[in-house]
Prior knowledge:
Layout: H1 6-33, H2 35-44, H3 54-61
Amino acid sequence: MERPSPSQRRLIGVGILVGALLNPLGWVGNVFLLGDMWETAISAVPVTAWRETVWKEALSFAPDFI
């Protein structure tokens, strides 16, 4: 496998940095600004098994890096 070029490494690094910044900002917004609305919305959705696992966190965490 070929090593990534400097511009590819820079792009990957910036993607990781942006993801690391967006995750805490998203958490703050979801907890403090939208907390009550999220509770109301989630209580209306039937509980499924995956919501009780680490997969829920992984699925909510991953999109910030994509």
